[in-house]
From TrEMBL:
Protein name: DUF1885 family protein
Cited Gene3D superfamilies: Rbstp2229 like protein, Rbstp2229 protein
UniProt organism field: Fictibacillus terranigra
InterPro entries, alphabetized: DUF1885, Rbstp2229-like_sf
Species lineage: Bacteria, Bacillati, Bacillota, Bacilli, Bacillales
Organism domain of life: Bacteria
Amino acid sequence: MQQHAYIKLVPSSKQQSITTDEVKQLFYYYKDITSKTGTQLGWEYEQSAFPYSLEEKREGKERWFYLKGTDKQKYKYIMVGLDSEVTEGTNTSYIQVTLPEGFTHGDKGKANEFCKFMAKQLDGELHLFNGRVMYYYKRK
């Protein structure tokens, strides 16, 4: 069964909308900083921290892309899409992270890690796979 997590860009977030290229840049930034951590530790941490390749299909251009696992026994796929919803008269953009049928425990762990990283970078509101909400923006 599929599972979904959402990173909502609320009025207190750093930005109110986002593109697929900006989300991809967040993943590249994550990959870059984890590889630097590995260099400091003297360990090839990059492959363990980001065991996926970013792939995009023509029909999903500008709307969604997916992460394909490089180690098929531990990691399969994570899908990342963009959308928006109208709530209380305001348009709220969000990033949807989907674990497709047959996902592994490794996929879910990495998806949670990536969601928390992106929500923190964007000062967003994270709705986790288990339904809980984490607030990464300053609340009044």
